[in-house]
Amino acid sequence: MKFADLHLHTHFSDGTFSPEELAGHAQRLGFAALALTDHDSVEGCARMAEVCGAAAIEFITGTELTAEHNDTELHLLGYFVDTRNEKFLMDIARFQAVRQDRIREMVARLNALNVPLQVETVFALANCKSPGRPHVARALVQAGLCKSLDEAFERFLKKNRPAWVPKAKMSALEGVELIHQAGGLAVMAHPGLNRTDDVIPVLVDAGMDGIECFHTKHSPATSARYLEIADKYHLLVTGGSDCHGFSKGKPLIGTVKLPYEHVEKMKAKVAERNVKTTDGHG
Ligand code: AMP
Ligand code: FE
Ligand code: FE
Ligand code: ZN
């Protein structure tokens, strides 16, 4: 049986694996298809496509956007997005700039607390367009200013801790639109983690295509619940491990194996939409 992992991060956001390492693990585990879903970024997709090609693994472009609806944070996965779509690239560049400014602000707050971390150190360590709190945490540990990533979050970086800075987010409706205009499928990530059930019907009305029913942190009961919701709203079913390499403990790739039939349904929906937009009836 063929299976896929449609939720993966590399060092192009807050994961620790390179595309080569990720594809290596996927090949060893027997995955037929992968999607890369780095936060607010498609920077790693070109290299991931190349290494998957060499490993005979099907590659699906993707991203994970941080969005909000009525003050509830939610994550939107975009699959099959055209990574060269100019409007899409310009829009996500805005959110990458927000992330970079937020890092500067977090470091300024640390400095005000007499924690002598330099912002250049964080940017050098992150080495990507989409830095986040895990990079600040790693920099604190590497500089010997915290003993562990957990300590960095607990003391400084968790919500309402002294170096935490709120992040300006796009609206969920804007996120769905952004993914669609780049030719992608919009999928709500890990609904069981964000407690975003109330938002599902709102986003269904906005044309959301699917929900991530299978996720490392969904219990079997949670997955079953979202499979029912997917059925009720005629949504695509997706799933993935949300592997971040070693940045949150041990690598998670392999914990979720999405049956390939779901990938086929996704491809059918993208193909159908592309026919509609090119023959002028859509
Ligand atoms: P950001 O997008 O910059 O707000 O960072 C979010 C990332 O930080 C996510 O990948 C989270 O899993 C990770 N994160 C949040 N809280 C913690 C924590 N207490 N310990 C470790 N990682 C965390
Ligand atoms: Fe992350
Ligand atoms: Fe997420
Ligand atoms: Zn993720």
The largest β sheet comes out as: 6 strands, mixed
Q: What gross morphology would you assign?
A: globular
Number of helices, counting only DSSP H or I runs of 4 residues or more:
11
What is the CA-based Rg, rounded?
19 Å
Strand content: 15-25%
Keywords:
11 helices, alpha/beta, six-stranded mixed sheet, binds zinc ion, binds adenosine monophosphate, 16% strand, four-stranded mixed sheet, binds fe (iii) ion, 282 residues
Topology:
Layout: E1 3-5, H1 19-29, E2 33-35, H2 45-54, E3 58-60, E4 62-69, E5 72-79, H3 86-112, H4 119-126, H5 133-142, H6 149-157, E6 170-171, H7 172-181, E7 185-188, H8 191-194, H9 199-205, E8 210-215, H10 220-233, E9 236-240, E10 258-259, H11 261-278
Parallel strand pairs: 1-2, 2-3, 4-6, 7-8, 8-9
Antiparallel strand pairs: 1-10, 4-5, 5-7
Helix pairs in contact: 4-5, 5-6
Describe the protein in words:
This protein has helices at about 20-30, 45-55, 85-110, 120-125, 135-140, 150-155, 170-180, 190-195, 200-205, 220-235, 260-280; strands spanning about 5, 35, 60, 60-70, 70-80, 170, 185-190, 210-215, 235-240, 260. It has about 280 residues and is an alpha/beta fold. The strands form two sheets. It has a six-stranded mixed beta sheet with strand order 6-4-5-7-8-9. Strands 3-2-1-10 form a four-stranded mixed beta sheet, with helices on both faces. Helix 4 (about 120-125) crosses helix 5 and helix 5 packs across helix 6 (about 150-155). The radius of gyration is 19 Å and the shape is globular. The two termini are about 35 Å apart. The mean pLDDT is about 95. Bound molecules: adenosine monophosphate, fe (iii) ion (2 copies) and zinc ion.
